[in-house]
């Protein structure tokens, strides 16, 4: 318990530092967030219009310390101002409508790829030298293909040539968003190609990493002792070997969950999927600093939560990390 409390305190300090940097970096950059939008009018705005536009987008004349306190208030209340790219929608509204697309699709695919890859890695390490080892070069080759190129190939083959799936989008234009079967079935249909791309491109890394760790762990003394005691092979593999071999993969899985939003950019842009990755891409094009800052904050929180959950899982899986 002391170990978990100490780690929780560490993550709180890390969250404070990350949020403070997220506040400070946009403010030390040249110019200000509203300047990019004002420059698009090429000097045709009157001084009063410029002042009104800066006030509209939250540009304040307050001191840096007061802005910092206001920023923390906004973090806890979820008020990040208006979005330039999606005006007149607020940043919170844009995040609310896009985050679920990313969290459901990308997170679910990451979990599936992790479970499938580590499961096949356990079997390949246990039955090394058999036909299961042939999965390693195949999946590694797929994983080594540039991500955007692999996604384009998938679109070209299954959407444009075979016409089995739609080229882009998240749901049919005539579907009404909500908990109704026409919308859910349409969203599932449109998610097939992005999901296949993510899983196919990710499973190879989990497989080869878990396979190599299994080979190493199976040669450890405690595994050989378990075999010498006459324990069933399945118990030796899954209780003694796989449990310990999975620890490095678990840490990597936590990091992949944390960066699931950032890693979704390429997939969502290629498939024009309505998630946070696409929103971040459009925000960068429009220099929408409030929206980008909120997304970066969201990614930071995701990474910290994922790593905290990984530490908790470590405590239960590996007794050596516990304090007496």
Automatic annotation (TrEMBL):
Its main location: membrane. The chain crosses the membrane at residues 9-29, 100-126, 147-167, 187-208, 250-271, 291-317. It is found in: Cell membrane. It is a multi-pass membrane protein. Signal peptide: none annotated. Keywords: Cell membrane, Membrane, Transmembrane, Transmembrane helix, Transport. It comes from the Bacteria. The keyword Aminoacyl-tRNA synthetase does not apply. Residues 99-310 form the ABC transmembrane type-1 domain. CDD domains: TM_PBP2. It holds the Pfam family BPD_transp_1. Belongs to the binding-protein-dependent transport system permease family. This is ABC transporter permease. It comes from Paractinoplanes globisporus.
């Amino acid at each position: 318990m002391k170990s978990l409390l100490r780690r929780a305190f560490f993550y709180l300090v890390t969250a404070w530092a990350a949020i403070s940097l997220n506040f400070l970096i946009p403010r030390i950059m040249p110019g200000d967030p509203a300047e990019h939008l004002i420059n698009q009018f090429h000097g045709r705005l009157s001084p009063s219009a410029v002042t009104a536009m800066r006030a509209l987008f939250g540009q304040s004349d307050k001191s840096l310390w007061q802005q910092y306190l206001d920023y923390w208030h906004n973090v806890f209340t979820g008020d990040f101002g208006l979005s330039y790219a999606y005006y007149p929608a607020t940043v919170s509204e844009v995040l609310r409508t896009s985050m679920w697309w990313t969290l459901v699709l990308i997170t679910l695919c990451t979990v599936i790829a992790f479970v499938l890859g580590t499961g096949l890695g356990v079997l390949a390490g246990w039955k090394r030298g058999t036909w299961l080892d042939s999965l390693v070069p195949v999946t590694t080759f797929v994983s080594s293909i540039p991500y955007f190129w692999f996604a384009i190939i998938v679109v070209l083959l299954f959407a444009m040539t075979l016409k089995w799936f739609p080229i882009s989008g998240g749901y049919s234009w005539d579907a009404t968003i909500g908990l109704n079967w026409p919308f859910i079935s349409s969203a599932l249909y449109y998610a097939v190609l992005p999901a296949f791309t993510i899983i196919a491109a990710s499973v190879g890394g989990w497989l080869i990493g878990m396979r190599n760790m299994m080979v190493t762990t199976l040669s450890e003394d405690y595994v050989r002792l378990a075999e010498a005691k006459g324990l069933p092979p399945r118990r030796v593999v899954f209780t003694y070997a796989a449990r310990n071999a999975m620890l490095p993969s678990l840490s990597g899985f936590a990091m992949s969950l944390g960066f699931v939003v950032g890693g979704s950019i390429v997939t969502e842009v290629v498939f024009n999927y309505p998630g946070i990755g696409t929103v971040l891409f459009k925000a960068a094009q429009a220099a929408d600093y409030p929206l980008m800052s909120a997304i970066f904050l969201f990614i930071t929180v995701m990474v910290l939560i994922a790593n905290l959950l990984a530490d908790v899982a470590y405590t239960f899986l590996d007794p050596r990390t516990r304090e007496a």
